From TrEMBL:
Matching HAMAP family: OMPdecase_type1_B
Originating species: Sedimenticola thiotaurini
Annotated Pfam families: OMPdecase
Assembly and binders: Homodimer.
Protein name, per record: Orotidine 5'-phosphate decarboxylase
Biological or metabolic pathway of the protein: Pyrimidine metabolism; UMP biosynthesis via de novo pathway; UMP from orotate: step 2/2
Amino acid sequence: MTDTSAEPRIIVALDFPRPEPARELVARLDPSLCRLKVGKEMFTRLGPAFVEELTAAGFQVFLDLKFHDIPNTVAAACAAAADLGVWMVNLHASGGRRMMETARERLAGYSRRPLLIAVTILTSLSDPELAEIGFSGSAADNVQRLARLTDDCGLDGIVCSPLEAALVRPRVRDGFLLVTPGVRPASAARDDQRRVMTPADALDNGADMLVIGRPITAAPDPLQSLRDIRREIAARD
Ligand code: C5P
């Protein structure tokens, strides 16, 4: 069965240029307390074997490759992710309805299909940059429109900032997953993230799951940091 449960809510972003520190970190984490996100850098360096290593260690993996291509190619890539046994995979909503629906239909054939979520508008894009590539309206307008389109195409959710979560939550169906990066525990450094929110505030804004990297991966004791964040969240409930 596809695992749609929110728990564990924390997805640790494994952003490392080399396998050794990633493996060291993973050995110190616990699959009952977090999921893991593998992005373009690690996947391009280490390939599917690394993802298999993580799943063999008991972790659910979010393969964050943000597919964007013609429908047949994206659907085939999603099928490859499903064959790899990942728990979640994503694509760009701006690839359009047919691309999203074809990918969803392709995954529907799997008894344990990965969750399929979309990126709406990259949070790195400013309103003038969006205008330059031909989007009309603000980033917030486009996020809401693409979130509704993603919902309409029957996908499982979107990746969005905690600020966007508050805008999107009332406009999508119950159970539509909002996965938010840009989260920092009250005590942590902000690193290069600009518009950050605490885990509790992100959940209050409607987020279901939190992608957290450096506050855990760069902590002297990553497991302790993960436990502290979980405690911070639990205190809110
Ligand atoms: O270390 P940090 O917690 O900032 O890592 C956040 C993770 O979420 C990184 O893998 C980053 O690429 C990803 N991400 C993000 N902001 C977005 C989309 C993805 O920080 N808008």
